[in-house]
Amino acid sequence: MSGTVRDQVASPLDAAADQVLAERAADGDLRAFEVLVRRYGPLMRVYATRVLGFNDETDDVVQESFITAWQQLGTLDDGRAVKSWLMRIVSRKSIDRLRARRAHVNIEDTDAPAPESTAPHVVAEVESQTEALARVLADLPEDQRRCWTLRELAEYSYHDIAFELHLPLSTVRGLLARARKTLLREMEDWR
Amino acid sequence: MTSVLPSTDQLDALVRQVPGVESLYPAGPLVTAMLTAALDAVAHRAPAAPLVYVGEQGDGVRVTAKIGIGAAESSGHVSGRVHDAIAAHLEQGDYPPVVQIVVIVASVRLSV
Amino acid sequence: MTELTPADERFVAFDLDDTVREQAELDGHTVEQLSDYLDRGRVPADPRIDDSPECEIALRGLERLRRARQALLARDLERESLRADDWVASILDNITLEAHAGRDIPLTHPSPTARLVVTEGALRGILRETGDSMQNMFVGRCVLVGDVSVPGTPILIRVDVTVFPGENIPLLAERLRQAMYAALSRYTELVVAAIDITVSDLHALPDVSVREMER
After folding, report:
1. Of A137, B97, B108, C138, which is least packed with CB atoms within 10 Å of its CB?
2. What is the mean pLDDT of chain A?
């Protein structure tokens, strides 16, 4: 029956493609924007949490990101790219926070503790690979984890990571390689 | 000459009562609105910024109201009625002469 | 730099510091190269990698890492979805219509002190809502072309519409056009010369982008 699509669609806009939502939001449609917030807000929060660690700042960063997005939606040429555009905004805001935090504390290796990183070397034997990854990630040096998160969660290119973090491309490659190798080795240990 | 500016609180209430007006938005300069909104957020209180904006212009007064309207009538009708209500209010009091009354229809809500 | 013990011999390929040993153990490749190869979906196929048992072991490790990464993301997203909804409200409360108000479109009034306008943003809202009241289509971008600041100037309206599969597009477009004319004449004083409707088919099922997010 031709009504199948319609039947799945409880509130029509929830099912609209990114492009339609982005264009409507750029025209000032709050309802379309709300759908985008619900669709990508959780991913942005997960991402910001991985970069910043678990703390109050995550909420602020995600909120600021969406406010910026709302104001600048008109500059987004291709509405289909709204997801990566949003990820870029939240990345930038998260990195800004990290910089501010570092300027404030002035200690190179400050790192927000993540809850998974309880007792680093006490590993439950039954720990699942998911939990293992979460814990190893939390234990990575901050610069490595940030590169890895940008690459694997935000799907940045090496070049974009270098640009965002103000690092030479070779440094980014080195950090990512170290992160991957550490993760691989640790994952091997808990197979 | 007593040139007391009209109270924005009174004007807010007046505009809200005009038939067809569904919502009232802050009409002041953006900086003022954002500043007040930020202060409100810090203090966790309901928005305190006056919504209808009253400014002096030359010897007179310039009033701006930004409204949202419903589906019943045209934007011309409702905004005209808002204008007339503000004009009548200002005529009654001992206020400076009206230079301009600006009414901005910022949203039209067709559905419920 | 953080102290890290040298890799176990078994995992010498993952030695953190010695690229030479890494390459020696991976038939001349690095973990980075293998990781990029995997990201490309192992195409175009590289026999020097595919035929190497050492690379195969490393690739399997990388794949396991990728699955764990996906599982972790899925778990985190699930946790997020269980959160109370108030974060959405707090975002929406903090944005204003101001950013997208567009141009002011004058409305007539006999008083010389009156300046009545309806914003372009409000008009686009009327057009969108008119489309939303019709089934099996999404109204996308709406553009008002012409000098809207001079009352009586005929303007052109361009509307992008996505239509669900199986619909009679010309019929649907005509109904939308009539509904938009009616709404504009009811709520505004615009002189509308034409409403151009560009229709595209809805190719993909609606939930594709959501699924993609969990990739």
Report:
1. B97
2. 80
